[in-house]
């Protein structure tokens, strides 16, 4: 029986390994982590992450060929293939701070693999890493190898949160990069056979190591660039009377452009787009390519512009002040169907409103009060560096409340801001919400999910991204 161990039981490690266990009953999969609460949660009825379809799979496989453990060294020692799926945040201090990837977690995992291994292993980069990371990891592994052979592969993950299970079941492609040596080809083939249990072989792309590493950064940069492009257009739509939904539909029907990922929004969030583009920018700068770096930096600049523009729109529409006005925030997660708040645009919007002394009342179906308060107290990029947590200032605490009900959040509010496209927000009773709000009652739809005309008929003053005012 092939044994797989995955270091890092997070949003990628957990679902990816659960699907491998489900699709490959002959493989024993152990997911390990240094975080005791996280592993406890994986072994409980309340999994540490919310992802549609995940719970069923975990229940089917857990205890049979899927195990969650904090005994990292034991499982690494016993494994034939070790996936490394630890976090690779943006550095907050030192060389490259605010841009470069912090590979501390990766390096410590690699050193541990080298220390505890007693047999040959394939080590798979699952985390998103800067191009050429495998070279550094190889040096660490080989340096301590005691004659043990390691083959390093790059197998970046392309799943999106909220649809992780569907993405893992039917990936557009699986990408595996390896050394172009007989041993490298053999390792690539071994990993390919794992995926071939459910992925058609013509969808398993094999490349050299550096192409695989760079393709991941490139894919995220291209995806984020589409959102910044349509968001840039949304600003122009508002100035000209064009409607961004109509424009993106018209543009997206060109089969060379395609219709996906063209929804204008308050800005993209999530743990990866910004981090990976900043990392790409840094790599370009380090390689003496300032023009290329500047090009990709614009994707982030437009995203920041879009979030600021949204806050400015709220404040200016509400007679230039939101001081002491209750503003209801519907949705805090970075997208629907997840409880993940990493880099969610809601953080920037809420901080902008708090800066203007608004009283904000937040409702999200999957995000806890504790999480929201933590997020609002944190500095940029600190979410992935738990040691930097700081308490929220007492004034800010007074300005924020979190509810478990959209109607409570909107009661007596002057404005409602929709920041996540949760389906349930579309079917709320907006007449009831309007009746219980201060007048004039404003709605700012940061996701373009609402029927603007219907809301205007009720009496709301409505602002929807990229739509005629
Ligand atoms: P995460 O923070 O949810 O999980 C990482 C886990 O690694 C944490 O539980 C942490 O405790 C653990 N860890 C860190 N160092 C460790 C060590 N030395 N030993 C054992 N465990 C350790 O992160 P994630 O969202 O799963 O992302 C992981 C990687 O995958 C990142 O590089 C990210 O860019 C990439 N990625 C993420 C997504 C996504 O949707 N979240 C998608 C594709 C790729
Ligand atoms: C993204 C990529 O889609 C995955 O392929 C990749 O594996 C992952 O990043 C990663 O590397 O972490 P994810 O961040 O989970 O996945 O979710 P997306 O669906 O890509 O959404 C990202 C953000 O963009 C969300 O805030 C979403 O609301 C926003 N978005 C998305 C838009 O504003 N408009 C769109 O048209 C699409």
TrEMBL record:
Catalytically driven reaction(s): UDP-alpha-D-glucose + 2 NAD(+) + H2O = UDP-alpha-D-glucuronate + 2 NADH + 3 H(+)
Asked if the Swiss-Prot or TrEMBL record annotates the protein with the keyword NAD, the reply is yes
Q: Does the keyword NAD apply?
A: yes
Give the highest taxon in the source lineage: Eukaryota
- The signal peptide here is none
Keyword annotations of the record: NAD, Oxidoreductase
Q: What class of enzyme is it?
A: oxidoreductase
The record places domain UDP-glucose/GDP-mannose dehydrogenase C-terminal at: 328-452
So, what pathway does this thing act in? Nucleotide-sugar biosynthesis; UDP-alpha-D-glucuronate biosynthesis; UDP-alpha-D-glucuronate from UDP-alpha-D-glucose: step 1/1
Catalytic residues, per the record, are 272 (nucleophile)
What's the Enzyme Commission number for this chain? 1.1.1.22
Residues that, per the record, bind NAD(+): 8-13, 33, 38, 86-90, 127-128, 161, 272-275, 342
Q: Where are the transmembrane segments?
A: none
Q: Name one GO cellular component term.
A: nucleus
> So what family is this one in?
Belongs to the UDP-glucose/GDP-mannose dehydrogenase family.
Kindly provide the name given to this protein in its UniProt entry. UDP-glucose 6-dehydrogenase
